[in-house]
Design brief:
Elements: H1 5-20, E1 24-29, E2 32-37, E3 49-54, E4 60-66, E5 77-90, E6 97-103, E7 134-136, E8 140-141, E9 155-159, E10 163-167, H2 172-181, E11 189-192, E12 202-205, E13 217-223, E14 228-232, E15 238-242, H3 243-248, E16 252-253, E17 269-273, E18 279-283, H4 284-287, E19 293-297, E20 310-314, E21 320-324, H5 325-330, E22 334-338, E23 368-369, E24 375-386, E25 395-400, E26 406-412, E27 417-423, E28 456-459, E29 484-486, E30 493-499, H6 505-511, E31 514-520, H7 522-525, E32 535-543, E33 565-568, E34 571-572, E35 575-580, E36 582-589, E37 596-600, E38 606-611, E39 614-622, E40 624-627, E41 632-638, E42 647-652, E43 669-679, E44 700-713, E45 717-722, E46 738-746, E47 752-756, E48 761-772, E49 775-778, E50 795-798, E51 802-810, E52 815-821, H8 824-828, E53 832-837, H9 854-866, H10 884-895
Parallel strand pairs: 24-27, 26-31, 32-36, 35-43, 44-46
Antiparallel strand pairs: 1-13, 2-4, 3-4, 3-12, 4-11, 5-10, 5-12, 5-13, 6-9, 6-11, 7-8, 14-15, 14-16, 17-18, 17-19, 20-21, 20-22, 23-24, 24-25, 27-29, 28-30, 30-31, 32-33, 33-34, 36-41, 37-40, 37-42, 38-39, 38-41, 42-43, 44-45, 46-51, 47-50, 47-52, 48-49, 48-51, 52-53
The structure holds CU-O-CU linkage and copper (II) ion.
Length: 899
Amino acid sequence: MRRTGQNIAAALVVACGAAAAVAGTVTLTAVRDNTVFQESLNSAGADDNVFAGMTSQGDIRRALVRFDLSGVPAGSMVTAAELRLYCTRTNSSSGARSVSLHRLLADWGEGTSGGGGQGGEGAPPTAGCSTWVHRFYTGQLWAAPGGDFAPGASATALVNAEGSYEWEAAGMVPDVQAWVDSPAGNFGWMVRGDEAASGVAKRFASREASQAARRPTLTVTFTPPATTGACCLAGGVCALLTAGECTGQGGAFQGVGTACAPSPCPSPVGACCHPEGTCFAASSTECSPAGGVWQGAGTLCSPNPCPALTGACCYANATCQTLTGVQCAAQGGTFAGAGTTCATVECPWVLVPFVDSLPRPGVAQPDTGLPGGAAAYTMRITEQSQRLHRDLPLTRVWGFNGGYPGPTIEAWRGAPVEVTWVNDLRDEQGALRQHHVLPVDPCVHGAGTDAPRTVVHLHGGHVPMSSDGYPEWTFLPGQQSPPYTYPNTQPPGTVWYHDHAIGITRLNVYMGMAGFYLIRDAAEQALGLPSGAYEVPLAIQDRSFNADGSLKYPAMWMEHFFGDFVVVNGKVWPYMEVRRGKYRLRMLNGSTSRTYTLGLSNGAPFHQIGTDLGLLGAPVQVQGVTIQPGERADVVIDFGGYTVGTEIILTNSAPAPYPGAPGVGVVPDVMKFIVQEETGGPSTLPATLTPVPRLEEADAAVHREFMLHKMSDPCTGSVWMINGLMWGDITERPRLDTTEVWSFVNASGVSHPMHMHLVQFQVLDRQDFQMVGGVPTPSGPRVPPPPEEAGWKDTVRCDPQEITRVIARFEGYLGKYAYHCHILEHEEHAMMRQFETTCYANCDASVTPPALNVADFGCFLTEYAAGNPYANCDGSTAPPALNVADFGCFLTKYAAGCP
Ligand code: C2O
Ligand code: CU
């Protein structure tokens, strides 16, 4: 139950009431005492001692003692009383003698007489002293000499030697209770010793005793009076209060000692208002738990007193209207709650899946040559509006030659392709764009201004540095790249192109700058894999949308971005009609951060036939495939066994961020296949595909280690780093025609898809590690990749707390190439560095080609003799016997800038 303010107050009152009922104890020191002497009218009020019992002369002495009980609250119940007297002297032969207390029945005085010696005699009385015959000297007498007291003893104790004695009989309780109840009758006790034998008087310390601890004390234990009771407050709330507190709060006091459980308070009914404005009759205790606001006892629902509270009402098209909850439901909206506003609530798009047919990107048309052969292209980077879902308004996107994703470039192994990339981004008026469409975060390294800079990288392409889309070599709207040469001297594979502008790659790719580049060859063609209509590239990306349909992306750099919808080839959750047969699907994860674990909703297995950069040795049957940003999976799905109309969803189960708890951050749908009547696609898959020769670790000249981790950053809070170094810090200079092993040591909590330009690599293995004294220390075996990952790759999943090793041969081109995490938010800040391939180390260990000089010849000879990597003019790499032709070759290469 939700506690109201009143309930809480009541609870506190109850607690206080309970505390007041706890027993009290007071210890009182005598306020008056005296001794009366049978043999004289002496008194001993000022003496240190009092006497009780018969002296050796045969005279009786009696002590009187009285306590002030005002420290016990009126109305208290006395539960125990204990008198303590300290015996200061006794006749050593007198032995134990009973000493008893008798309630005194008349008032008496303690004057100033006495004060001498042992106090055994007292002294002649002064005014107000009590004596054997006087209550107050001189005029007021006891009714009977020796004092007026109750004949029955209230308590008796045996007093023997010197020391402390207690009287605590139950009979004392009524005496003390009477004195508490009626202080005017409190005359104390007469203390009587043994009055039948001589020489047995006992002497006790009086209240004048110099040792305070010996003075007579009375300890009273009592239960204080009950003063609280149930108080019925407004709304039927019951609180334990005193009568005064209760009336002060306007309550009705139910009497001292009455309880709140069960509540004696009537629960009054009044109008209870729901935030939507509906009204119902309820008591206050029923109203607030039901989410209402009670209008007070006796208030009525007719006429309806309840204001209808409004809030943000979200519609499926991400628009918002301020309505009451009832109105919102009637409009088919989702009410964000009373008191919310459209200014603060972000209404999400609610899109129906599988209503748009999957688009297939067109084939790029060259300026010269033919698609699929040697050709030259002009690819214009363009801004246009596309409908990314049936129910979305047009979305402004960036693509190539008027389309997002860009058209597919068809290439043939060995047939070079040339592409001139033109930045033709224009605004609505057709003017060249001055500013980016998305906010540019200046915290990110290299972001600079918000100019829409671009540069295009062929991801997976083995190309010269001058054509690689070096991230700093960006060009503005109205500018273009030099013609980029793609030699296509690599095995067939699913390569793709995308923007790589330093500082804004994530924004440019998010806007749509990506497309496929497929390299084929005759050997692959001869395999008879599904082709033509049965071969479909799938660019899988996630996106979010603003209410106006525009792409939604955070203004400030964030560690990750995860979109709400999965877009395949430019449509949200499309469907694809498939014929009954096999389809080759070239899946590309083109998202900025999201990992996908793709599977089929009917649980059917399928085959993976290729990795990032080519075919596997043989098809591998899988239940699913996990691809991280930048990775590709070439798969064949067989729809041959299904009946017409069968619907199968391509599902995603990867959490975001990845890895993570199952279900967290998952967008479960990707696209849907709908099986048609017709048959199509080849019926069989070849048993083997292509040889994938393994790179041997033993051939590696250099092993390098890369620590992947997150650090703090003054501008953005955090930054992702590789070995704590930046883009400009070049520390890896692989020599051309050598093999290296790179170990990615992931000391962070998320996976990083590590990508290297220029090279194709193989995954060697993965190994658990722990940090021991700041050093990554392997803690498990090296686990080789599964067969479906054992092909050529350029991007590898590096999971947390694992060392992922890849092996690559650096060949072909000299220059600086990027390597980076392909989570674009990571790449941008600042998980991107560069290596520089070198073919030459000068004698001073520098790597830039020097001016031709004799010393370099000497160095060359030394290195030559040492068998250092060297490409002979006949293309072989083994150190040849020194011969004149090699000198000629050296000179040629040297002149070409590669000594
Ligand atoms: Cu696909 Cu350097 O990236
Ligand atoms: Cu990363």
